[in-house]
Inverse folding.
């Protein structure tokens, strides 16, 4: 394996160079030697900031990167940090009334339940409705630990929690409910799935319609909304440029 | 410098371990040895995904990380990727009419013009109104190259481009206009700054009011909005969990 040995040597030299620079500051940073091969770091920031839209699969050069991100700990740390942020916000915004109408909405797939084993097996390939349905029917999605904790925190904080998913109600209703129960999501107020009337509609359209109904017809005050897709929230056409230097309210 | 030598040695060993693992995939990934010291990777994802809210300064353990991110190339790559995404979207959405009423809105600070030299000098400390005003008055903010290019692309695409900034009109109007011109932003349709009536209002309130006026009173169709702060867009209370595996429309 001479190429690997060579690559190791080069990376080692670059590592030492970077460490010399890093010695001026924290034990940071660690960008990959040679910049950002495949543009995977940039691509992931675009995904999370809602700039990358309508992508169909992880770009081929980034499959290894996403595998490592999801499986080696950084995803778990990121989702844990998100749960902490959300719990802190919820704690600062206690229910406005004693009427039990303060509610949070949580998405299901890859918010409460993880589909990582399925996507790993598919090598993060494009959406495959039949295969995904077969996977979801098994009801074995692991709960995402940080989100199980957040769910319990919200319930303990006297909020209603509605689980809202684009999964088809008729085909996947029973297995989804069983999967949620097995994964630690007990005591949610309602599991709202895509009924026949919404089949074929985009996630944005379906979820926006449900939230409107909850708020306007049923009178709930939706205090927060947790999801892994920007379509869980709204459909605004906005573009966010990176800036980790300051926050403008 | 024995500690540095020791640290180098440990990092080298971890690097070789990581390379053994990485050999199964791409030349990726490179998370820092020991996980995510200071939680800086998680923190930056939270910033870009609009989960971290109301922070006042870069967390102390992350100052070195932000310095390196901003100064060593990854920020430039990320903002370039954002510009490419935006230009591709704008090209797919040609002006709807021949009436010259299709418009884009661009923020100024750290979208068109960079304040990086100022924040580096302040070690990314908290907002300091007097010092920032003194810096802005000098009119020497560099243009952000990818955004100069995007601005020209939008203008060439027959869009109106409104530059919208929370900077105070009376104090900073002349120097901001001169700075924009010097940085390559020539031919924008209007520079809209914070007038006395909006002093003390949040950026969300001010910018939303201006966009409403442009759309409802003046009849512009706002086709896109580019900024570095989520307050450039709206004030929705949403929380995004990371997911680089798939995109749901």
């Amino acid at each position: 394996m001479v190429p690997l040995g060579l690559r190791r040597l080069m990376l080692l030299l670059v590592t030492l160079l970077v460490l010399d620079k890093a010695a001026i500051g924290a034990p940071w940073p660690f960008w990959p030697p040679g910049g950002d091969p495949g543009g995977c770091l940039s691509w992931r920031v675009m995904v999370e900031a809602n700039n990358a839209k309508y992508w169909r699969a992880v770009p081929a050069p980034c499959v290894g990167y996403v595998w490592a991100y999801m499986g080696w700990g950084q995803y778990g740390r990121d989702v844990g940090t998100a749960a902490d942020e959300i719990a802190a916000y919820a704690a600062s915004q206690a229910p406005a009334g004693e009427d039990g109408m303060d509610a949070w909405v949580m998405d299901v797939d890859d918010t409460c339940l993880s589909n990582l084993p399925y996507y790993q097996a598919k090598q993060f390939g494009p959406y495959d409705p039949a295969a995904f349905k077969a996977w979801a029917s098994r009801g074995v999605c692991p709960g995402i630990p940080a989100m199980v904790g957040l769910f319990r925190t919200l319930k303990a904080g006297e909020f209603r929690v509605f689980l809202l998913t684009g999964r088809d109600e008729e085909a996947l209703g029973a297995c989804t409910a069983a999967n949620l129960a097995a994964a630690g999501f007990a005591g949610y107020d309602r599991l709202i799935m895509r009924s026949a009337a919404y089949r074929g509609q985009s996630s944005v359209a379906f979820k926006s319609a449900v939230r409107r109904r909850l708020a306007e017809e049923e009178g709930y005050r939706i205090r927060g909304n947790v999801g892994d897709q920007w379509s869980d929230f709204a459909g605004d056409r906005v573009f966010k440029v990176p800036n980790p230097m300051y926050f403008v309210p």
In short: Residues 2-22 of chain B form the longest helix (21 residues).
